[in-house]
Amino acid sequence: MGKHYKRTPQQKRPKKSGAGFKAVVIGFVTMAVVGGGSGFAYGQYMKDKMEKAVNIDTIYQGISVDGTDVSGLTQQEALNALRQQTDTHLENQKITIQQEEKIWDIPFSELDVKYDVEAAVEQAWQTGRSGELKQRYQTVVDTAENKLDIPITYTYDKEKVREKLNAIAGEFNVLAQDSTMTRVNGAFEITQEQKGYEMDIDNTIPKVEQMLKQNQGGIVEPEIIVTEPKITKEQNQQVTDLIGSYTTTYSSNAWGRNENLRVGSENINGTLLAPGEVFSMNVGLGPQTYENGYKDAGVYVDGKVEQGVAGGVCQITSTLYNAVILAELEVVERFPHSMTVGYVPLGRDAAVAGDYKDLKFRNDTEYPIYIEAYAKDGKMVCNLYGHEIHDAGHEVDFEMVFEGTIPKPAEKVTEDATKPEGYREVTYAGKTGSKVSVYKIVKENGKQISKEWFSSSTYRATADEVTVGTKKAEEVKEEAAQQQETTEGLIIEEAPIGAA
User: Fold this and answer.
1) Residues 374 and 400 in one domain
2) Burial of 283 (C-beta count, 10 Å sphere; 0-12/13-18/19+)
3) Do 11 and 72 have their domain in common?
4) Is there a single domain that holds both residue 339 and residue 427?
5) What is the pLDDT of residues 433-463, one digit of tens each?
6) pLDDT single digits (tens) 102-113
7) Could you tell me if 379 and 458 lie in one domain?
8) Of residues 394, 235, 238, the one with CA closest to residue 327
9) Are 249 and 315 found together in one domain?
10) Alpha-carbon distance values, 299 to 88, 311, 316 (Å)
11) The pTM is what?
12) Total number of domains in the chain
């Protein structure tokens, strides 16, 4: 709670050498010297006159409070009159925040403005009521002649000023709007960008408080922070070239997986990246849940393929990854699969999983980049559109080099007591792992100008899983004999039934 005072006019002190008072004193002294009796009588007269002037139960003449004359009023009468005036003033005063045609009103009452009428009236009442008789009389005479206006002190709640401006800012603030791009029938449709603005609350508060200190409402034009859009129409108009493209294939027989390709592609299709912006595949795909349209399909779990929600989205990720590296964009984060996949060359796959595997790349060009992605007729396609900065003869290719194989770990054996010794069945065929490196090759007009290491990938090896029998040969023979006896017993029991 902050206390603020209205500017107070210079309060005039009683004139101790006023002509009237001086004449009274000289006359009184002269009478006292010339004639004792007459002087005493005049002194008593003056005393009675002064006592009559100061001993009244109303506020002395010439006194006003905040411009309102309260002389001749009792304290209670002055309080009633001033309270009515301040209440009316409080009801009528408001701060208006105006931005062009939009306005928001903040009544003084909502800022907890309070007038200390009691203190002002008390000061008015006490004026001339302290000190000796002559001093009091002189104050009363001087006040009646020169007037005295006492300001009303008032307070307001600074926190409520901020709260009100914060509430208005929720309606006032307008987000910047980027220029958008939509690809329709092979051509781009581009919208105009719009600047945004928000209220600068810290620099608007002093304007409101200045008006409050003057105890008068009025219009306040808020301070504004302008926010620029990240992408302008002019920038989008520079997106004229296919800078990276890649296609993979898929079978039409896996409905759940194909549905995941369709849903995931639609989620990232049409994404527009501003210069410097980083794209996250996990964010682009959205939550991989049934509620978002994803279905169950094959996923890698501990070296095996199992059914899981959103299986197949890694094919979208790998297809986009290859378009990204062909466009020579900066790869921020990429993880290979735990095991090899068949839809892209070894070492050029990219996996997503939970919140621990993601594909991220940065638009490190000076122009926006538009992502086009779709799955149709057995083809998963990712195209990247931007502004080509290379000459027509510029080519990029990638070469995979085997760095070594990773042998299968020892087979996992499961014993089956119901199978005889010597029984063996391979229930899962493991895989040999591998380590590969990928090299980036750049050519200009058909001539290779560079070949540099680009990435390395490791694919785990998985063990064969086999089931072996552990039942002893004697147990097998004994079970066979028991089975034969049971069969013969059944035949003997059935024979009499057939006899007649």
Assistant:
1) no
2) middle
3) yes
4) no
5) 999 999 999 999 999 999 999 999 999 999 9
6) 999 999 999 999
7) no
8) 394
9) yes
10) 74, 5, 14
11) 0.70
12) 3
